[in-house]
Specification:
It is a single chain. With 288 residues, this protein is of the alpha+beta class. It has a domain at 1-80 and 174-278. It is 41% helix and 14% strand. It has helices spanning 37-48, 92-108, 125-136, 141-160, 177-188, 190-194, 209-232, 242-253, 257-260, and strands at residues 61-65, 68-71, 76-82, 113-121, 164-174, 237-239. Strands 1, 2, 3, 4, 5 and 6 form a six-stranded antiparallel beta sheet that branches. A hairpin with a 2-residue loop joins strand 1 (61-65) and strand 2 (68-71). Helix 2 (92-108) runs antiparallel to helix 7 and helix 3 (125-136) runs antiparallel to helix 4. It is flat. The two termini are 45 Å apart.
Length: 288
């Protein structure tokens, strides 16, 4: 992978969110608004306090749109989800064909890609709930007893055995000359921003229409090349759209919450950004 380009997957490198970095509140002095000198002193004192470091300050994604990830350094990413094939059950001739196709696929790539294998624990709860609903509709006592035994067996098995599910992705990226220079400049000050007080101003990624249109065309061509190369190996793949990309990152950063609280529909979202509320956060509680 090119060291001048940043990764789009959280397990490889920190990535971004759509929220801008928070800034410290500015001190204001409004005459005739009922403010006293003590209030003005408190406001000035609060403005001098360093801002609280937010997790979003270390993320590198600026925006998700048109099925692409727009990074803060001006580079672009697209994610292709792939199905798995059972290589062990193939004959030797089929294995040789897959290996030869994979070799040709790698040789056909003229750009940097990232292969991601994600492992996550399977949640058996919805399956058990569906079985319980079916059982309540059964009048046969023998079937009810058998379903109770089966549900108990599945529940015990899921608790004792760590049942995992694997997902496979290929990250396709595009970077112009200007974005590569920005990536090098940002990488030099990454740890400085990571451990800063959070009082820096929010950065805005500016991309002109010509650069964006060229990136969309290039990303589409590269995704088509990847999908066709995977198809030659018998691997079916599909490009993730905007909502699927958002859901992917939501599941990455909220693995426990995403199971019970999936990402809401975009049409019902009323705010574009998640911003920090007013006031100071409560101090962390000491562990007992």
């Amino acid at each position: 992978m090119n060291p001048n380009e940043q990764s789009a997957i959280p397990n490889a490198n920190p990535v971004g969110a759509t929220a801008p970095a928070a800034t410290a509140p500015a001190a204001t002095n409004v005459q005739g608004a009922g403010a006293t000198k003590d209030d003005d002193k408190k406001a000035v004192k609060a403005a001098k306090k360093p801002g609280v470091i937010s997790t979003q300050d270390s993320l590198q994604v600026s925006q998700i749109r048109d099925g692409m990830l727009i990074m803060k350094d001006g580079t672009f990413r697209a994610v292709v989800a792939c199905e798995s094939i059972n290589f062990d059950l193939m004959s030797q001739t089929e294995k040789d064909g897959v290996e030869y196709s994979y070799q040709n696929f790698l040789n056909s790539l003229y750009f940097t890609t990232q292969i991601l294998v994600r492992s996550q624990r399977v949640d058996i709860g919805p399956y058990l709930q569906r079985l319980a609903d079916i059982r309540r509709g059964q009048d046969n006592m023998l079937l009810n007893v058998l379903m109770d035994d089966y549900m108990q067996f599945i529940d015990i098995l899921s608790q004792e055995a760590n049942i995992m599910d694997k997902s496979f992705y290929i990250v396709v990226q595009y970077a112009s000359v200007e974005s590569i220079e920005n990536a090098v400049a940002q990488s030099k000050g990454f740890f400085k921003k990571l451990f800063s007080s959070g009082s820096a101003d929010a950065t805005v990624t500016k991309i002109d229409r010509a650069t964006y249109d060229k990136a969309v065309t290039e990303i589409n061509n590269r995704v088509d090349l990847v999908v066709n190369g995977l198809f030659q190996m018998g691997v079916h793949s599909v490009r993730l759209d905007t909502k699927e990309l958002s859901t992917l990152f939501y599941n990455f950063y909220n693995p426990d919450t995403a199971v019970h609280e999936p990402l809401a529909d975009f049409s019902k979202v009323t705010s574009l950004y998640v911003q920090r509320g007013e006031g100071t956060p409560p101090p962390p509680q000491e562990a007992r």
